[in-house]
Design a protein that fits this description.
Elements lengths: L2 H14 L2 E6 L17 E6 L1 H10 L4 E5 L2 H4 L4 E11 L6 E5 L8 E4 L5 H14 L4 E4 L8 E5 L12 E4 H9 L3 E9 L5 H16 L1 H8 L7 H11 L6 H16 L21
Parallel strand pairs: 1-2, 1-3, 6-7, 6-8
Antiparallel strand pairs: 3-10, 4-10, 5-8, 5-9
Helix pairs in contact: 4-5, 7-8
């Protein structure tokens, strides 16, 4: 075997032994994946949120930063890694309804196809706040719709352009007095993820400690200026995954099941590990 063939085999073996990590490709995930693209143990696969649960079910990835609602709709059972999540307690900024008509008059919402969790959240909020059901459909063309739901970086371009707006993070906390969890790390049931969970936990801690570097390197790529990005991380996003976040997640699942938005209400099941606590 020549050197070129040997090197190719070694590179392929190294790639095969790496953990396949699926993460959302939005700015809000940057602290949770900080430096992962350079980790020799990891193959990072950025995706839109709606794809990650499908990839975890199919075995395309080993761990995913999955939309929280997908925990109740997945074909297979998952375990949640108790390390960090993407959440809010109050205004989240990047999960938002925009409308040409008063919010309580909306009958049908054109929803960002990248999202699963936020669509369910909007329908729950309309039930709790306006005592009415909300029909939803895929968003195809922003300019032709009278009411839309957007998530992630694309929200910034619509701020202030519509007569009526509703931040779903604010609405949820006002109605329930609880935080909301949009996404968390999950692995298939039965997988030994001790090493992987340790890598992700260290990554999250490093990301939290390097917010200024994240803003400098990535804010512009995602359409954020530095001031908005700094406020976003300081005031809008919550990465803790403690008792209150679990309470908020459980309440979300209860309401989603009551409104028949999910086929079941799986209890929260966390991966048992020896990591010694959460972020």
């Amino acid at each position: 075997m020549n050197n070129t063939s040997q090197n190719h085999l070694e590179e392929q073996e190294e790639a095969d032994n790496r953990y396949r990590v699926g993460a959302v490709s939005f700015f809000n995930a940057r602290p949770l994946i900080y430096g992962l693209d350079g980790c020799p143990r990891v193959l990072l696969q950025p995706k839109v949120p709606a794809q990650l649960g499908l990839d975890l079910d199919s075995g395309t990835i080993d761990v995913g930063l999955v939309p929280s609602i997908d925990y109740q709709t997945s074909r297979s059972d998952w375990l949640i890694l108790p390390i960090a999540a993407i959440g809010s307690e109050g205004e989240v900024l990047t999960v938002r309804v925009f409308s040409q008509q008063p919010l309580d008059e909306i009958d049908c919402l054109a929803c960002d196809t990248d999202s699963h969790t936020s669509v369910a959240l909007a329908r729950i909020i309309w039930h709790l706040r306006y005592s009415r059901s909300l029909a939803v459909k895929p968003l195809r063309d922003i300019e032709s719709e009278s009411a839309i739901l957007l998530i992630g970086d694309k929200v910034l371009g619509q701020l202030g352009r519509w007569p009526h707006e509703l931040d779903l993070g604010s609405a949820w906390t006002e109605l329930t007095l609880l935080p909301f969890v949009y996404a968390f790390w999950a692995v298939p049931f039965g997988v030994n993820a001790d090493v992987l969970a340790g890598i992700l936990q260290r990554t999250c801690r490093e990301g939290m400690a390097n917010i200024d570097d994240i803003i400098e390197r990535y804010a512009g790529q995602h359409g954020f200026d530095d001031d908005i990005a700094r406020r976003y991380f300081a005031d809008n996003l919550v990465f803790d995954f403690g008792t209150r976040q679990r309470q908020g997640l459980t309440r979300f699942y209860e309401l989603a099941y009551q409104l028949q938005l999910v086929p079941q209400q799986r209890p929260l099941r966390f991966f048992p590990s020896s990591m010694g606590g959460m972020l």
